[in-house]
Specification:
With about 160 residues, the protein is an all-alpha fold. About 80% of the residues lie in helices and about 0% in strands. The longest helix has about 35 residues.
């Protein structure tokens, strides 16, 4: 069966989508830190709320969808040359892949958490401190390190 998109192109697009997604996850908590310390209703708050909303809508959500779509495609094409063999093939998946998948699911949950927190900030709620958001901005980088090392070293 001929694929519409080749494996190497899908892998490149997957990496680009992941880079965009993680970059957005690194930026968004910083925006939230600025919003948290800004004067309610002030110009800085409004500017940062708009920037955060645009970041989520233009970069984060599309790159999340693309990263998952290309990742699933890569997983399927890597594992299954013959779709009839699919059920038994899952047992041959290396252990490192499951660790990577768990971390990526965690990043996806973190993405959802940031989206929910953005809605709270837009509603004028400030349940978390600037320091909290600055610390949270490091989380995606640490997870990305682990994911990349799992994918490249295949321990």
């Amino acid at each position: 069966m001929q694929h519409v998109i080749g494996y190497d192109l899908a892998r490149g697009l997957h990496i680009i989508a992941v880079i965009a997604w993680v970059a957005g996850l690194l930026m968004l908590p910083r925006f939230y830190a600025y919003i948290t310390t800004a004067q309610p209703g002030g110009e800085l708050e409004q500017t940062m709320l708009k920037a955060a909303r645009n970041l989520r809508a233009i970069i984060l959500t599309p790159s999340l969808i693309l990263a998952w779509a290309f990742g699933i495609f890569l997983f399927a094409t890597y594992l299954v040359a013959d779709w009839a063999a699919f059920p038994g093939v899952l047992g041959t998946v290396p252990h490192w892949f499951w660790g990577k998948l768990i971390l990526v699911l965690g990043l996806s949950g973190y993405h959802g958490f940031l989206s929910a927190e953005g809605r709270k900030l837009a509603a004028g709620q400030r349940p978390r401190s600037e320091r909290y958001w600055r610390l949270m901005s490091e989380v995606p980088f640490l997870v990305a390190i682990a994911v990349v090392l799992l994918a490249t070293l295949e321990p």
